[in-house]
Specification:
It is a single chain. The chain has 175 residues and is α+β, with helices and mostly antiparallel strands. The chain is 26% helix and 28% strand. Helix 3 (95-112) crosses helix 4 (135-148). The protein contains 4 helices and 10 strands. The protein has 2 domains: 2-16 and 79-172, no CATH class; 32-69, no CATH class. The protein has helices at residues 51-56, 71-77, 95-112, 135-148, and strands spanning 2-3, 32-35, 41-43, 46-48, 65-68, 83-88, 118-124, 127-132, 152-158, 166-172. It starts with a strand and ends with a strand. Bound molecules: zinc ion. The site of zinc ion has 7 residues, from helix 2.
Protein backbone atom coordinates (compact mmCIF):
# COMPACT_ATOMS: atom_id res chain seq x y z
CA UNK A 1 0.00 0.00 0.00
CA UNK A 2 1.52 3.29 -1.08
CA UNK A 3 0.91 5.69 1.73
CA UNK A 4 -0.47 9.17 1.23
CA UNK A 5 -0.10 10.66 4.68
CA UNK A 6 3.20 10.59 6.43
CA UNK A 7 1.49 9.56 9.65
CA UNK A 8 -0.29 6.66 7.98
CA UNK A 9 2.17 3.87 8.51
CA UNK A 10 2.20 0.56 6.73
CA UNK A 11 -0.64 -1.58 7.91
CA UNK A 12 -0.66 -5.10 9.14
CA UNK A 13 -3.36 -6.90 7.18
CA UNK A 14 -3.43 -9.81 9.59
CA UNK A 15 -5.86 -9.98 12.49
CA UNK A 16 -7.46 -6.58 12.50
CA UNK A 17 -9.38 -6.97 15.73
CA UNK A 18 -12.75 -5.45 16.41
CA UNK A 19 -12.86 -3.37 19.56
CA UNK A 20 -16.43 -3.81 20.66
CA UNK A 21 -15.34 -2.73 24.11
CA UNK A 22 -13.86 0.50 22.80
CA UNK A 23 -16.42 2.64 24.57
CA UNK A 24 -16.07 0.81 27.88
CA UNK A 25 -12.69 1.73 29.15
CA UNK A 26 -11.38 -0.11 32.19
CA UNK A 27 -9.89 1.92 34.97
CA UNK A 28 -12.08 4.95 34.43
CA UNK A 29 -13.49 4.80 37.95
CA UNK A 30 -14.83 8.06 39.28
CA UNK A 31 -12.15 10.20 37.76
CA UNK A 32 -10.84 11.00 34.33
CA UNK A 33 -8.54 9.07 32.07
CA UNK A 34 -6.70 11.35 29.67
CA UNK A 35 -5.15 9.91 26.52
CA UNK A 36 -1.47 10.73 26.51
CA UNK A 37 -1.37 10.65 22.71
CA UNK A 38 -4.35 12.67 21.57
CA UNK A 39 -5.63 14.50 24.69
CA UNK A 40 -9.19 13.22 24.63
CA UNK A 41 -10.50 12.08 27.98
CA UNK A 42 -12.75 9.40 29.37
CA UNK A 43 -15.34 10.37 31.94
CA UNK A 44 -18.62 8.73 32.94
CA UNK A 45 -18.41 5.98 30.35
CA UNK A 46 -17.62 8.03 27.30
CA UNK A 47 -14.82 9.91 25.59
CA UNK A 48 -14.78 13.67 25.22
CA UNK A 49 -12.67 16.43 23.72
CA UNK A 50 -10.82 19.15 25.56
CA UNK A 51 -9.62 17.78 28.89
CA UNK A 52 -8.01 21.10 29.86
CA UNK A 53 -11.29 22.99 29.74
CA UNK A 54 -13.05 20.24 31.69
CA UNK A 55 -10.47 20.15 34.46
CA UNK A 56 -10.42 23.94 34.65
CA UNK A 57 -14.02 23.96 35.85
CA UNK A 58 -14.18 24.38 39.60
CA UNK A 59 -16.54 21.46 40.18
CA UNK A 60 -14.11 19.10 38.42
CA UNK A 61 -10.83 20.17 39.93
CA UNK A 62 -10.76 17.48 42.62
CA UNK A 63 -11.46 14.57 40.28
CA UNK A 64 -8.62 12.05 40.14
CA UNK A 65 -6.78 11.98 36.82
CA UNK A 66 -5.01 9.06 35.19
CA UNK A 67 -3.20 8.84 31.89
CA UNK A 68 -3.50 6.02 29.35
CA UNK A 69 -3.71 5.44 25.62
CA UNK A 70 -7.26 5.68 24.30
CA UNK A 71 -8.71 2.79 22.26
CA UNK A 72 -8.53 4.75 19.00
CA UNK A 73 -4.84 5.61 19.43
CA UNK A 74 -4.16 2.04 20.48
CA UNK A 75 -5.85 0.66 17.36
CA UNK A 76 -3.89 2.99 15.10
CA UNK A 77 -0.68 2.10 16.88
CA UNK A 78 -1.45 -1.60 16.38
CA UNK A 79 -2.35 -0.92 12.75
CA UNK A 80 -5.85 -2.18 13.31
CA UNK A 81 -9.08 -0.81 11.91
CA UNK A 82 -12.76 -1.65 12.06
CA UNK A 83 -13.83 -0.31 8.71
CA UNK A 84 -12.34 0.11 5.29
CA UNK A 85 -13.64 1.98 2.27
CA UNK A 86 -12.13 0.79 -0.98
CA UNK A 87 -12.70 3.21 -3.84
CA UNK A 88 -12.28 1.65 -7.26
CA UNK A 89 -11.88 2.99 -10.73
CA UNK A 90 -11.38 6.59 -9.59
CA UNK A 91 -10.78 8.90 -12.54
CA UNK A 92 -7.26 10.31 -12.36
CA UNK A 93 -8.50 13.90 -12.18
CA UNK A 94 -10.72 13.10 -9.17
CA UNK A 95 -8.21 11.23 -7.04
CA UNK A 96 -7.09 14.23 -4.99
CA UNK A 97 -10.67 15.31 -4.50
CA UNK A 98 -11.63 11.87 -3.19
CA UNK A 99 -8.65 11.80 -0.81
CA UNK A 100 -9.38 15.32 0.46
CA UNK A 101 -13.03 14.47 0.98
CA UNK A 102 -12.12 11.35 2.98
CA UNK A 103 -9.67 13.28 5.15
CA UNK A 104 -12.12 16.12 5.79
CA UNK A 105 -14.97 13.73 6.53
CA UNK A 106 -12.90 11.83 9.09
CA UNK A 107 -11.78 15.09 10.70
CA UNK A 108 -15.41 16.07 11.17
CA UNK A 109 -16.29 12.62 12.49
CA UNK A 110 -13.51 12.93 15.06
CA UNK A 111 -14.94 16.22 16.29
CA UNK A 112 -18.31 14.52 16.80
CA UNK A 113 -16.98 11.30 18.32
CA UNK A 114 -13.42 11.26 19.69
CA UNK A 115 -13.02 7.58 18.81
CA UNK A 116 -13.89 8.04 15.13
CA UNK A 117 -10.56 8.29 13.37
CA UNK A 118 -8.83 7.90 10.10
CA UNK A 119 -6.39 5.02 10.68
CA UNK A 120 -4.69 5.06 7.28
CA UNK A 121 -5.28 6.23 3.74
CA UNK A 122 -3.38 5.10 0.71
CA UNK A 123 -3.35 3.25 -2.57
CA UNK A 124 -3.74 -0.48 -2.92
CA UNK A 125 -2.89 -1.01 -6.55
CA UNK A 126 -4.99 1.62 -8.31
CA UNK A 127 -7.68 1.60 -5.62
CA UNK A 128 -7.83 4.14 -2.82
CA UNK A 129 -8.13 2.54 0.61
CA UNK A 130 -9.42 4.47 3.61
CA UNK A 131 -9.16 2.65 6.91
CA UNK A 132 -11.04 3.91 9.93
CA UNK A 133 -11.41 2.98 13.58
CA UNK A 134 -15.20 2.50 13.56
CA UNK A 135 -17.18 0.41 11.08
CA UNK A 136 -20.11 2.82 10.97
CA UNK A 137 -17.73 5.57 9.94
CA UNK A 138 -16.76 3.45 6.92
CA UNK A 139 -20.43 3.08 5.97
CA UNK A 140 -21.09 6.79 6.32
CA UNK A 141 -17.99 7.73 4.38
CA UNK A 142 -18.99 5.35 1.57
CA UNK A 143 -22.39 7.06 1.35
CA UNK A 144 -20.76 10.49 1.46
CA UNK A 145 -18.53 9.66 -1.50
CA UNK A 146 -21.50 8.27 -3.38
CA UNK A 147 -23.44 11.48 -2.78
CA UNK A 148 -20.52 13.72 -3.65
CA UNK A 149 -19.77 12.26 -7.07
CA UNK A 150 -21.98 11.38 -9.98
CA UNK A 151 -22.14 7.95 -11.48
CA UNK A 152 -20.91 6.17 -8.41
CA UNK A 153 -22.24 2.80 -7.43
CA UNK A 154 -21.55 1.55 -3.93
CA UNK A 155 -21.63 -1.84 -2.37
CA UNK A 156 -21.20 -2.69 1.29
CA UNK A 157 -19.96 -6.03 2.44
CA UNK A 158 -18.92 -7.31 5.83
CA UNK A 159 -15.95 -9.51 6.21
CA UNK A 160 -16.70 -12.48 8.42
CA UNK A 161 -14.88 -13.10 11.67
CA UNK A 162 -12.20 -13.16 12.95
CA UNK A 163 -11.71 -9.68 11.55
CA UNK A 164 -15.24 -8.25 11.62
CA UNK A 165 -14.01 -5.45 9.44
CA UNK A 166 -16.73 -3.58 7.57
CA UNK A 167 -15.54 -3.25 4.02
CA UNK A 168 -17.35 -0.78 1.82
CA UNK A 169 -16.68 -0.89 -1.89
CA UNK A 170 -17.28 2.31 -3.82
CA UNK A 171 -16.95 1.97 -7.53
CA UNK A 172 -16.81 4.71 -10.16
CA UNK A 173 -18.62 3.44 -13.23
CA UNK A 174 -17.04 5.75 -15.78
CA UNK A 175 -13.55 7.08 -16.07
ZN1 LIG B 1 -5.85 8.93 22.01
Amino acid sequence: MAEIKKTAKRLNFKNPRLRRDAHEFPGGGKGLVICEKCDIFYYQKSWHHNADAFIAKRENKDLPVKFAVCPACQMIKNRQYEGEVIIRNVPEKLKNEVINLANAYCDRAFLKDPLDRLAAIGFVGSDISVRVTENQLANKLGKKIKDAFNKVKTKTSFQKSPGDVARVIVEFLEK
